[in-house]
Specification:
Elements (H helix, E strand, L loop, with lengths): L7 E6 L4 E8 L3 E9 L5 H6 L6 E5 L3 E2 L18 E3 L2 E2 L12 H7 L3 E4 L3 H11 L2 E6 L5 H8 L11 H4 L5 E3 L6 E6 L5 H9 L2 E6 L5 H8 L3 E4 L10 H12 L4 E4 L1 H9 L4 E17 L4 E13 L1 H6 L3 E7 L5 E6 L4 E4 L14 H10 L1
Parallel strand pairs: 3-4, 4-6, 5-7, 6-8, 11-12, 11-13, 13-14, 14-19
Antiparallel strand pairs: 1-2, 1-9, 2-8, 3-9, 10-12, 15-16, 15-17, 17-18, 18-19
Helix pairs in contact: 8-9
């Protein structure tokens, strides 16, 4: 285990708020949009979820790193968050299955963080003021210099990021002789989504974000299409919106999660918007209004569809609603085999209430 001395570090928010703490991870400087996740477990899933690309993550759980890092539990090939903010940064871990400490993991992947700050105060501040850009540094402690660097960071609003996290080459998963074939448009897909398809007898092929519908049809002739989760502003992705429109026009079965949900809305002339704080955690109650059933869900998104536009649409109908704020959590297209949800039914660790959605997609392909 790497020897680690806690050097001073600074967290500066866009509105001028400053927190002083201790260095975590690599000594350096990082920037991004700051947001918080309320999950009590699953920090490794958070670190490696491509939907968090470009974001500084505040962990509301008091201890991070206490059960180490296990190679088998990553959601992508590397850490995706821009930086970490936590209360207690635990280098010593207690789990036999772990391969290494969080400190070794962060140093290997050049991740900068800050610990030993009052995360309760920080989360209350973000909750009241909204998501904003921030900078963490354990090498620069001069606030004026940090302010100058932070001023150069672009807003998440309007950023296209999926092309930065998507696969560079196509690849397959599942058994070739499986009864169903799906094409996955990789906008930042999580590995556990693919595992859920594999568990249901699906052979899939994963394509880079800017692959066209015609290319996927010609190459793989799938029974259905999956539009994945991912980072950034969906309104800045006209290429993906066009692909979704073409899938709908061909009347192919389609399932979207998170960013895929927002793109399905945009393809049906329903606008999206940047949320004040977004939803991030393992404990969001969502009601399936079709079957009158409540699900505890895992969520990670900073953008959402405009509720009034969904309700006014003649093209789609609402299937799921968030019980905390009444935001739209699921839609399906009328007279098409296409549906989507805003949350993550594949969450692991996390609630499994919504795994039935994968089965629903299978049924559409039968």
């Amino acid at each position: 285990m790497t020897y680690f001395t806690k050097l001073p570090a600074v967290l500066l928010l866009e509105d001028g708020t400053v927190f002083h703490g201790k260095a975590a991870g690599k000594i350096g400087t990082t920037t991004g949009e700051i947001c918080f996740n309320t999950g009590m477990t699953g920090y490794q899933e958070i670190f490696t979820d491509p939907s968090y690309f470009g974001q500084i993550m505040v962990a509301t759980n008091a201890h991070i790193g206490n059960y180490g890092i296990a190679d088998a539990e990553v959601e992508s090939g590397n850490i995706q968050i821009a930086g970490l903010v936590c209360k207690n940064y635990n280098i010593t871990y207690s789990r036999k299955q772990a391969n290494e400490s969080i400190q070794d993991y962060f140093q290997e992947q050049n991740i900068v963080g800050i610990s030993d700050i009052d995360t309760r105060q920080l989360v209350r501040h973000i909750r009241d003021k909204g998501a904003m850009n921030a900078i963490i540094s354990s090498e620069i402690l001069d606030l004026e210099e940090l302010k100058a660097k932070l001023a150069e960071v672009p807003s998440m609003d309007g950023l296209e990021l999926s092309s930065k996290v998507t696969t560079k080459e196509t690849y397959t998963f599942g058994e070739e002789g499986a009864p169903y074939r799906i094409a996955v448009l990789d906008l930042g897909v999580k590995k556990n989504i693919l595992r859920n398809f594999d568990d249901r007898g699906v052979h899939g092929k994963v394509y880079p974000a800017k692959t066209t519908f015609a290319e996927m049809e010609k190459d793989f002739a799938p029974n259905g299409y999956f539009i994945s989760n991912g980072p950034g502003d969906p309104a800045a992705m006209p290429y993906a919106v066009e692909t979704v429109k073409e899938i709908l026009a061909a009347d192919k079965p389609m399932f979207g999660i998170c960013l895929g949900h927002q793109l399905l809305a945009l393809a049906n002339d329903i606008p999206t918007k940047k949320m004040f704080n977004g939803h991030r955690g393992l404990n969001h109650p969502v009601k399936n209004i079709i079957i009158n059933h409540c699900e505890v869900t895992s969520q990670n998104h900073g953008f959402g569809v405009v509720p009034e536009a969904v309700r006014a649409s003649e093209k789609v109908e609402i299937t799921h609603v968030n019980l905390n704020d009444q935001s739209i959590e699921g839609i399906r297209v009328k007279d098409k085999k296409a549906f989507s949800v805003q949350y993550h039914p594949e969450s692991s660790p996390g609630p499994h209430d919504s795994r039935y959605l994968f089965d629903d997609f299978i049924k559409l392909m039968q």
